[in-house]
User: What shape does this take?
Amino acid sequence: MVNLGLVQMSCSRNPDENFEKGTARIREAAAEGAQIICLPELFRSLYFCQEELHSNFALAEPIPGPSTERLGQLAGELQVVLVASLFERRAQGVYHNTAVIFDADGALLGKYRKMHVPDDPLYHEKFYFAPGDTGYRAWNTKHGRVGVLICWDQWFPEAARMAALDGAQVLFYPTAIGWHPSERAEFGETQHSAWETVQRSHAVTNGIFVAAVNRIGHEGPAKGGLDFWGGSFVCDPAGKILARGSHDREEIIITPCDLQEIDTVRTHWPFLRDRRIDTYEGLTERYLD
Assistant: This one.
């Protein structure tokens, strides 16, 4: 049994303030028994990708760097596994949306660079982030084997499958997703339902636990911007929701997960066994004309 801790929080314009809030929430989650704790996507800042501004590149930092040093120290002190999403400055002119994974002794196990980078209204990530080149991986931690993908990766079954094939028992999705206020009344329920449903399907088809960790609050102009919808959740390998956050409150969601369920579910629903890997060549093509 392992206790997952999801930190659902709002963010301000002050990166230091956000970092201190995030680390305080990590301490609270650990005090409540969480053993693996995940923060939302790009938790050190507002979701700056709503605009294409060169000044926002100043928010980036190297990895390893100041944030990873402090997060590693905190993981070791609290003896918890941490997953955190940062704006990585890899080199001059090369930036990534990157998640870092720390073991319970504070060691930086590795990083995952977001592979699927969106370019939608108010989600102008291609302006800021180069596509990832780390591949889809999982890491052995003191409390289980953890896979990490980031936000837009949520919609791609191939990414979840690759993480599962690398042995992930729990797949985390640090996230920053919300409604356009002008669309919320008409499309809001459908959009949120689709987001949750596709991730639950990754849990079912791969026989793993899935945890999505989102931010809350309105960011951007009062009459525009984004209403981040929270709704952080954990589901089991059968897709059952074990815990779900609200749409409008900061909260820490602590969820016990029995990793032994993975084997039970996979022996009853043997999707990995019955894959026809000899027939999937077309998956490497953009489209089959």
